[in-house]
Amino acid sequence: MISILGKWHQDDRKSYRKGCPQFFIQDDRLFEKWDDRHVAFLKHEFLRLKNAVVLWTMHPWERDARLMKEALVKGPQAYGVIIEVASTRSSEQLLGARRAYHSLFDHSIEEDVAYHINDSRRKLLVGLVSSYRYEGPKVNEEIAKSEAKTLFAAIKNADKKNPIEDEEVVRILTTRSKPHLKVIFKHYKEINGKNIDEDLDDELSLDETMQCLCTPQTYFSKVLGAAFQNGADEHAKEALTRVIVTRADDDMKEIKEEYQKKYGVSLSKKIEDAVNGNYKDFLLTLIARGE
Amino acid sequence: MISILGKWHQDDRKSYRKGCPQFFIQDDRLFEKWDDRHVAFLKHEFLRLKNAVVLWTMHPWERDARLMKEALVKGPQAYGVIIEVASTRSSEQLLGARRAYHSLFDHSIEEDVAYHINDSRRKLLVGLVSSYRYEGPKVNEEIAKSEAKTLFAAIKNADKKNPIEDEEVVRILTTRSKPHLKVIFKHYKEINGKNIDEDLDDELSLDETMQCLCTPQTYFSKVLGAAFQNGADEHAKEALTRVIVTRADDDMKEIKEEYQKKYGVSLSKKIEDAVNGNYKDFLLTLIARGE
Q1: Which of these ranges, A46-55, A156-165, B171-180, has the smallest mean pLDDT?
Q2: How far is B251 from chain A (nearest CA, A)?
């Protein structure tokens, strides 16, 4: 980092300072003087770059373990990260994160999730982080069909009981293989005429879980879209770094295609426009990997 | 096996036939003629030896996966085997069994347990087979103390709700590390004046889970004791083979000490008296390993 910063030309620094400021926290107390304001900008930009580089240099298992721990510490509004990590990783990747969690935090991830989460999402989240899903192609169509009906009944009955607390809904989402779930959702659409996620707009955690499990690239491109839209929101800013760093060596190609399809602009163009400096260069380098 | 059987002397066979018959199934339909009866004995004896040898030659992960699958197929009276395997193995051993289960049965173990078990034990069993417990020594005494109170309240409140379905009881037993659980049970005794398992005599599955987690050698020596006592019972006979084969390379030494202490006779003496033939020799060889 020092060598990168050291190479900056005076003009670079000026253009950097004039760059798009709406992506950063604008705390007026920090901006009383012109100079202080630029120092604050720089500090924030450096912090984002530093965070991205630190996250990138970690082993993926350690990274996932730390992301989940951080979400637990931050509390309810960050639990989506736990759903994301537990549901979009392969069985072996999630297991690696659980191993790393042991050695980093002297607890198991399911132990901490079960102990710290006290809202309606507890059962779902404990199941998601504990799962070691079968990843073969074998799917029993009959069972999938009957489970589509089970989900439909639970979701349509939501007035009486929140489907996220329904034992059968949790069982299906936390134990079935991803190919099996896809077949369930196909049957669900046949029963209902629309996709299951359209039925779950009010149930954000369930909706997110289903997207992460079955259409992770759609999910990730939505997270990126939201991160650019809510550029000033701390959580959205972290999401940008998190998604790009964690997916760079995985399914970034598909995410870029999905992003282009959804927003009509390429992800790299959007990054060019929305962020600055070395942080921008770093993100662009990451999303170009493997091309 | 053929070479072993081929070496038998006439007298061996005679003494074998006169051996302790109460250990075998006595189905009178099989015993209409004297000769048929001996053939049936032999068939059963061979079957036991064969089962023991087959179980012994498997990789421990495959063995555990198959034992759990068999228990699921047999139904509710066999679910104790799932508790035993999930709770007495180390985190890595259980994980190995989960891996083997994937490739053998095209499902995850937690998927099958959650789908097939419909009684009050479902939540407990799903949690036990999904757990990847922390195995380090760190224990938070304060939390353990407070969780001892939680368990006490749930067990004392059993008139209103079966503790095996209590979410907190299940959470504690399925996610806490074994050292942490031992500290909980120590505090439980301080609160209550007696051990937690004495409070759970009517809750066999909970009692078994706690024993398997914290005093596995006591649990195994009890299973052996019951196997000798109910020699004619098919389940008890399988338990004898299962415990000796699965523990031979693990904690057999401690189990033998525990058995001697509990029943006042050595395990090898008991095997000498209660079983016969090559099956007996095989069990004696297994329990002598590592001496």
Answers
A1: A156-165
A2: 25
Chain A residues whose C-beta is within 8 A of a chain B C-beta are: 95, 98-99, 102, 106-108, 110-111, 114-115, 126-127, 130-136, 138, 143, 171, 174-177
- A38 touches A17 (CB < 8 A): yes
CATH architecture of B137-202: Orthogonal Bundle (1.10)
Q: Give chain A positions within 8 Å (CB) of B106.
A: 134, 136, 138
| Candidate from B95, B114, B174 with C-beta closest to A175 | B114
Count of CB pairs separated by less than 8 Å, A with B: 82
Q: Which CATH superfamily is domain A137-214 in?
A: Annexin (1.10.220.10)
pLDDT per residue as tens digits for the range A106-159? 999 999 999 999 999 999 999 999 999 999 999 999 999 999 999 999 988 766
Residues B34 and B290: beta-carbon distance below 8 Å:
no
- ipTM attached to this prediction: 0.84
- The number of angstroms, rounded, from the C-alpha of A143 to the middle of its chain's C-alpha atoms is 30
Tell me which CATH homologous superfamily contains domain A217-288.
Answer: Annexin (1.10.220.10)
Q: pLDDT, tens digit, for every residue of B211-236?
A: 999 999 999 999 999 999 987 777 77
Q: The tokens of B34 are what? A: 């004297």
CA angle A120, A123, A126 (to 5 degrees): 125
B contact test, residue of A106, A125, A132 with most B CBs within 10 A:
A132
**Which residue ranges does chain B devote to CATH 1.10.220.10?**
49-132, 137-202, 217-288
Q: Which CATH class is domain B49-132?
A: mainly alpha
Decide: helix, strand or coil at residue A202. coil
In angstroms, the separation between the Cα of residue A73 and the nearest Cα of chain B is 17
